[in-house]
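step: validate -> pass
step: tokenize input -> pass
step: predict -> running
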Amino acid sequence: MSGSITQGTSQTHGNTHILHLVVRLPRPMEAVWPALSTREGLAAWFTAADVLQPRLGGAVTLRDLGSGRITAWDVDRVAEYTVEPGGRIRFHLERAGDDASVLRFSHESQGDDKSEPRWRARFERLIEVLGSDSSGAAPGLTWGAG
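step: predict -> pass
step: emit ->
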């Protein structure tokens, strides 16, 4: 299976914008989880995590989006980061057979209704990083435990 990003949905309620995307990934959940939940993993495809305390309520600073807290954390399944001014970013992984997974993504933010192209580009990079070798890590990158 190769990766793909399905048609997303985008809603605006007042000043709140909510983007949903479904990303099919060519790696099992166990190989994808570090890309969503560790400083090294996030930096490889998304942005530097200057602070990341991998637990519910832990502090998080995503360099391009802001600082805040981890507002949902279910190891190997759900990572949700709520940062100011960047909003709420939720990654929800599901198994798709033995060798693949599905990422259900949502981003809730204030005022910015043009985030979909940026997220699509990020997820294309994630698919590329995950496909770069059999371990799911980018060449020369070893993801730590967080």
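step: describe -> The mean pLDDT is 88.
step: cleanup -> pass
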